[in-house]
């Protein structure tokens, strides 16, 4: 089930943004990226090629779920991503639920980092195939109020061989408040041929 579609826990702002991006997607310039709890977990074989010595706990893999997708509706990470191929950028609309509290009334820094890593990771994945985050630097400029809606704008800045250099920022819906800025270095594990096939698959599998 695609978990990036509106549900009763979404605020008015969240629905408004979703509808705006779905409208923008009508001419094909933007594409809504579906997101599933565990659709790609079964692709562990593809990743194990690069980490043959990883000690995977086989009996646990069948329970694997994408971390941000395993909270009950409205209590954790409510989000939807849209990708603009021409501009090589991804926008994530994100509403952080009450179970993501850090300082009282505000989002935990790790929850913010999760959505930054997920959005940058998805941007890198579409640009370069299966990637791993090698380095992630975040500046937390302002605390994000719990249950508020924010917009994560992420883009590829540079590609050097297998290395992708990305950046993103998190702003309020009215764009007046800059909450966080981040940069990341992602390493492609599978190279271009795979990523092209994966891009087509990516929109099937989603995350
Ligand atoms: C088909 C299956 C479908 C799957 C569908 C998935 C769905 C997708 C959902 C999207 C949303 C989730 C996205 C989550 C993304 C994560 O959260 S990934 C998890 C967190 N990251 C990790 O666990 C990575 C752990 N680290 C590693 O595995 C390895 O260090 C890496 C990153 C793969 C790199 O290792 P490597 O390939 O052996 O590369 P290595 O030779 O060490 O370095 C290559 C180059 O990169 C540079 N480099 C390496 N590390 C660094 C660093 N930390 N800083 C700067 N430069 C570095 C090196 O200096 C070197 O540069 P040059 O000398 O060539 O100039």
Automatic annotation (TrEMBL):
Enzyme class: hydrolase
UniProt keywords, alphabetically: Apoptosis, Cell membrane, Cell projection, Cytoplasm, Fatty acid metabolism, Hydrolase, Lipid metabolism, Membrane, Mitochondrion, Mitochondrion inner membrane, Transit peptide, Transmembrane, Transmembrane helix
Subcellular location: Cell projection, Ruffle membrane; Cytoplasm; Mitochondrion inner membrane; Mitochondrion intermembrane space
Chief site of localization: membrane
Lineage: superkingdom: Eukaryota
Gene Ontology molecular function: any one: hydrolase activity
The protein's Enzyme Commission number: 3.1.2.2
Keyword field contains Amino-acid biosynthesis: no
GO cellular component, one term: ruffle membrane
Signal sequence coordinates: none
Keyword Protease assigned: no
Residues spanning the membrane: 187-206
One GO BP: apoptotic process
Thioesterase domain sequence ranges: 105-177
Membrane topology term: Peripheral membrane protein
Reaction catalyzed: dodecanoyl-CoA + H2O = dodecanoate + CoA + H(+); (5Z,8Z,11Z,14Z)-eicosatetraenoyl-CoA + H2O = (5Z,8Z,11Z,14Z)-eicosatetraenoate + CoA + H(+); tetradecanoyl-CoA + H2O = tetradecanoate + CoA + H(+); decanoyl-CoA + H2O = decanoate + CoA + H(+)
Family: Belongs to the THEM4/THEM5 thioesterase family.
The name this protein goes by in its record: Acyl-coenzyme A thioesterase THEM4
């Amino acid at each position: 089930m695609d978990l990036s579609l509106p549900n009763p826990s979404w605020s008015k702002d969240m629905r408004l943004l979703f509808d705006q991006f779905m409208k923008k997607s009508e001419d094909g310039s933007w594409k809504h990226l579906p997101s599933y709890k565990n659709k790609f977990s079964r692709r562990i074989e593809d990743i194990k090629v690069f980490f043959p010595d990883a000690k995977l706990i086989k009996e646990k893999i069948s329970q694997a779920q994408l971390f941000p997708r395993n909270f009950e509706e409205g209590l954790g990470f409510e989000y939807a991503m849209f990708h603009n191929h021409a501009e090589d950028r991804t926008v994530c609309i994100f509403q952080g639920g009450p179970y993501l509290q850090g300082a009282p009334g505000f989002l935990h820094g790790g929850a913010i980092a999760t959505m930054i890593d997920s959005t940058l990771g998805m941007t890198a994945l579409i640009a370069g195939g299966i990637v791993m985050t090698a380095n992630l630097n975040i500046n937390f400029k302002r605390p994000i109020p719990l249950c508020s809606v924010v917009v994560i704008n992420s883009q590829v800045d540079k590609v050097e061989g297998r290395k992708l250099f990305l950046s993103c920022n998190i702003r309020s819906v009215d764009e007046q408040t800059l909450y966080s800025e981040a940069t990341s270095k992602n390493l492609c594990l599978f190279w271009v041929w795979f990523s092209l096939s994966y891009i087509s698959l990516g929109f099937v599998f989603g995350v």
